[in-house]
């Protein structure tokens, strides 16, 4: 079987018939590791090898201090294989620093190894201390170890040869320093061209191209070649240069002539051709200097690429290749202005993206994100900056005069092709004008998110513009929520009860448990203020559970007093989303020994429409357990009658909005709800009854039950006992 080309190259100098006397000398290699087994395995893997007519001779150290002593004693060591983690987590890096600074040894080549990838050196350490290579022990196969050693020995040999030529050495070292630390690829390429021209004592025009996976592109150039940056090599408008570059890449060798030179260099991923116009033939010594410099170019390019990849990981979205949230925060700060209002920031949120992801799969979701990103970039005129800042949220900075919410919605209105699926997609927009940008990009991000979240709540529009007072309102809401958390933890919340009456007999048949939050002034904070905040924050889950427990405790105490009635408890969407909700309800009833049909759960239309599947599933299980179910505020939302039929209901509550004007109006909607309830076999209960005329009209319509101030206001448990005793 034929060996791979790399393997053939690595063992080209091996010959079982050769004897030690035939070699011209030794390559001294120092193995530094605190594990003796690593020394044995490494020496075994490299034994019998020779390079450039020299054998390997091994030296051993088991700590950083011992390694420094060995290097001081044996000045001709060429390469050190150095473990990062030994007596301390950074022992290897400390040793590197001592080699370069204390021993002042710049020629020694260093290959770092570690069994713990988490202790990898940072990029600046690799650059600063001229580390040849870094590998984890798990990835360092024999072939890779030999490859790293060959590279290091070659580099060491060339440095030694170069030390004999002080002028050339100084030039190459200066050239190498000039490219080390560069992070931008085009700046790196331009600097390489400039330094090669300097080594050739000239100032000719030049260009550097890369070839990878069958594709070639211009990385950088000087003078006439600057216009070709990032274009394909075929776009170079100089037939002579193009031909020489192509020949260099094809032959993988330098091309030298009287008028120009083209140098070939490669690393483990790419090949490069560096073309330079010259006034005369390049001589052998110059070529040797340039080849040494090219070794540095290869290593430096790997560092630049590594930094580029790290930047991409930190500032670029992997899926869409767009800038990410981190980059957005940095870039948007550039557009802060107290006087100019030329730009507008849009946050574009894909509505119900999680449903698409869950229903059609993540692959389809990814394709949809890419399709949305592509359409926005291609079809929206005036985009200055575009990023993906969240799982389903994009940010577009646009010229205010060219883009409006309506024009953006128009572009997004057509379905998107995601694989085999043509998907109609809805969007929510948050809009922030430049006059409201902040110096800190995070604050601008927060402002636009405030607008986006408000835009999600609009029934008529899908967008909202940011205004500073929104932030003031949000700060107030956060303050309210903080107080609510505190008062709930301090047991300051209360449960009051409003009796429910049979319209025919006027007997008390039940009551509704209502949450009350007293303040320091002796009044109460409206549930319309704090309940939505509790729902948004998730605090409603523990509060709702507490209300249920209080209702069960009240039910038990009322039963002991001889009052047998149901108690209705309101339930919100976040409670249904709790996977343990049904279990908690059952366990609470069992804890207080409550007969299930004595507890009624009330849900609103909006709750059912928000999460119809999980709500219906949970209520069905609880209804089967024996609890009663009521739908509250019926007729005020946008519910579908099909959902009403699916719900396991016992009764419908007629909202006070349809009761308050009776008998002045006909009460047609209330009567329609009563009729609907009868056809579905459900009881009806009207809320908000304030006078006898309303009660009589509803009774004549066929409504069975009612609650309202006419009968009783909400009251604490002690007053409820007194009220019930007065009715007995």
TrEMBL record:
Keywords, comma-separated and alphabetical: Phosphoprotein
Matches recorded under PROSITE patterns: EAL (PS50883), GGDEF (PS50887), RESPONSE_REGULATORY (PS50110)
UniProt-listed InterPro entries: CheY-like_superfamily (IPR011006), Cyclic-di-GMP_PDE-like (IPR050706), DUF3369 (IPR021800), EAL_dom (IPR001633), EAL_sf (IPR035919), GGDEF_dom (IPR000160), Nucleotide_cyclase (IPR029787), Rev_trsase/Diguanyl_cyclase (IPR043128)
Transmembrane segments: none
A GO BP annotation: phosphorelay signal transduction system
Record's keyword annotation contains Phosphoprotein: yes
Entry GO MF terms: cyclic-guanylate-specific phosphodiesterase activity
CDD domains in alphabetical order: EAL, GGDEF, REC
Domain GGDEF: 341-468
Keyword S-adenosyl-L-methionine: no
Domain Response regulatory: 28-152
SUPFAM superfamilies in alphabetical order: CheY-like (SSF52172), EAL domain-like (SSF141868), Nucleotide cyclase (SSF55073)
Pfam families per record: DUF3369, EAL, GGDEF, Response_reg
Residues annotated with 4-aspartylphosphate modification: 83
Superkingdom of origin: Bacteria
Segments forming domain EAL: 477-728
SMART domains: EAL, GGDEF, REC
Name the UniProt record assigns to this protein: Diguanylate phosphodiesterase
Organism the protein comes from: Pseudoalteromonas piratica
């Amino acid at each position: 079987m034929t060996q791979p080309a790399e393997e053939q190259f690595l063992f080209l100098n091996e010959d079982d018939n050769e004897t030690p006397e035939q070699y011209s000398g030794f390559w001294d290699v120092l193995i530094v590791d605190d594990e003796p087994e690593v020394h044995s395995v490494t020496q075994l893997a490299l034994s019998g090898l020779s390079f450039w007519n020299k054998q390997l001779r091994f030296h051993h150290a088991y700590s950083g201090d011992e390694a420094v002593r060995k290097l001081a004693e044996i000045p001709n060591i060429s390469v050190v294989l150095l473990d990062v983690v030994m007596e301390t987590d950074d022992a290897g890096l400390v040793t590197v620093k001592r080699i370069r600074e204390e021993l002042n040894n710049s020629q020694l080549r260093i290959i770092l190894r570690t069994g713990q990838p988490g202790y990898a050196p940072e990029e600046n350490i690799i650059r600063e201390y001229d580390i040849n290579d870094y590998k984890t022990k798990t990835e360092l196969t024999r072939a890779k170890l030999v490859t790293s050693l060959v590279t290091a020995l070659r580099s060491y040999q060339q440095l030694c040869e170069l030390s004999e030529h002080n002028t050339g050495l100084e030039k190459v070292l200066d050239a190498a320093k000039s490219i080390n630390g560069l992070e931008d690829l085009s700046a790196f390429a331009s600097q390489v061209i400039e330094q090669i021209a300097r080594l050739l004592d000239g100032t000719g025009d030049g260009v550097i191209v890369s070839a990878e996976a069958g594709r070639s592109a211009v990385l950088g150039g000087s003078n006439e070649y600057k216009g070709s940056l990032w274009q394909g090599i075929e776009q170079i408008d100089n037939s002579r240069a193009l031909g020489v570059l192509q020949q260099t890449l094809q032959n993988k060798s330098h091309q030298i002539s009287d008028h120009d030179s083209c140098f070939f260099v490669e690393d483990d991923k790419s090949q490069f051709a560096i073309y330079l116009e010259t006034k005369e033939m390049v001589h052998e010594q110059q070529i040797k200097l340039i080849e040494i410099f090219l070794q540095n170019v290869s290593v430096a390019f790997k560092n630049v690429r590594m930094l580029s990849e790290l930047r991409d990981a930190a500032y670029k979205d992997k899926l869409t290749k767009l800038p990410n949230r981190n980059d957005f925060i940095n870039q948007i700060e550039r557009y802060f202005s107290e006087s100019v209002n030329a730009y507008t920031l849009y946050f574009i949120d894909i509505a119900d993206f999680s449903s698409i992801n869950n229903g059609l799969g993540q692959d389809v979701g990814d394709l949809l994100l890419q399709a949305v990103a592509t359409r926005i970039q291609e079809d929206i005129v005036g985009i200055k900056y575009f990023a993906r800042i969240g799982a389903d949220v994009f940010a577009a900075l646009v010229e205010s005069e060219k883009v409006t919410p309506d024009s953006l919605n128009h572009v997004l209105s057509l379905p998107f092709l995601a694989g085999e699926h043509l998907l109609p997609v809805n969007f929510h927009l948050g809009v922030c004008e430049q006059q409201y940008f902040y110096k800190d990009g995070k604050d601008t991000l927060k402002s636009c998110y405030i607008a986006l979240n408000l835009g999600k709540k609009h029934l008529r529009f899908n967008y909202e513009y940011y205004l500073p007072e929104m932030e003031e309102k949000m700060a107030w809401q956060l303050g309210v929520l903080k107080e609510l958390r505190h008062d709930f933890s301090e047991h300051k919340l209360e449960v009051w009860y409003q009796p429910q009456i049979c319209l025919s007999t006027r007997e008390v048949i039940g009551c509704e448990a209502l949450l009350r939050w007293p303040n320091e002034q002796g009044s109460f904070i409206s549930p319309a203020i704090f309940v939505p905040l509790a729902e948004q924050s998730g605090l409603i889950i523990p509060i709702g559970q507490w209300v249920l427990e209080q209702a069960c405790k009240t039910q038990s105490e009322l039963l002991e007093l001889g009052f047998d009635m149901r108690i209705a408890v309101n339930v919100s969407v976040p409670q249904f989303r709790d996977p343990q909700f049904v279990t908690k309800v059952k366990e609470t009833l069992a804890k207080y020994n409550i007969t299930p049909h004595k507890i009624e759960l009330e849900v609103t239309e909006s709750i059912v429409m928000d999460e119809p599947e999980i709500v219906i599933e949970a209520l069905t299980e609880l209804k089967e357990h024996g609890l009663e179910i009521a739908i509250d505020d019926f007729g005020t939302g946008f519910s579908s009658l099909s959902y009403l039929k699916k719900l396991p209901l016992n009764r419908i509550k007629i909202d006070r909005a349809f009761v308050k004007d009776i008998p002045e109006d006909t009460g047609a909607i209330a009567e329609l709800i009563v009729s609907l309830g009868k056809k579905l076999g459900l009881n009806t209960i009207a809320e908000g009854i304030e006078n006898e005329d309303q009660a009589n009209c509803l009774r004549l319509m066929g409504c069975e039950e009612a609650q309202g101030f006419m009968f009783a206001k909400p009251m604490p448990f002690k007053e409820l006992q007194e009220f019930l005793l007065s009715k007995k």
